[in-house]
Amino acid sequence: MGIKFTVGDAGGKPRHKEFSEEEAREIMELLQTEFSFTLPKGYVDEAGTLHKQGTMRLATAADEITPLRDSRVQQNPAYLTVILLSRVVTTLGGLGMITPRVIEELYTSDFAYLQDMYNRINQNGTNSIHAKCPKCEQPFVLELESLGE
User: Fold this and answer.
1) Is residue 103 packed enough to be buried (19+ CB in 10 Å), middle (13-18) or exposed (0-12)?
2) Which residues are CB-neighbours of 55 under 8 A, at least 6 positions away?
3) Residues near 52 by Cβ (< 8 Å), separated by ≥ 6?
4) Nearest 5°: phi and psi at 39?
5) Fewer CB within 10 A of the end CB, N or C, for the chain?
6) pLDDT exceeds cutoff 50 at 147
7) pLDDT tens sequence across 29-53
8) Which pTM was predicted?
């Protein structure tokens, strides 16, 4: 017995299709749900250790809805981003847990970097941008994961 996915093509109606386990594994590998990053400055913990490398996962509906019940968000709607990032940033250096406190203590350039990355991966499904060479006007795709170094 295989695994069923709902598939659709351009202009086509979604339909269920069964795939073998091997095909399903290949499809799931194509669906990237976690993205690596390097913070421009990095987070410094209480021991003075600098943490720059991390991963962020795609957000779920619950990630965006659940923080709305938090009293800190109700008192200050701008705090929503802090809670949201603490839910989707899955690793940061050697830290065991990413809490709202960790996000609060980021430098503003790192906070802005993660906000931008969140928007890119959740809107485009990639951590890249389309750019054009200013000299020859040749278009290219720029992968942003390593720009923080």
Assistant:
1) buried
2) 34, 35, 36, 37, 89, 90, 91
3) 38, 39, 41, 42, 43, 93, 148, 149
4) -70, 145
5) N
6) no
7) 666 789 999 999 999 999 999 999 9
8) 0.69
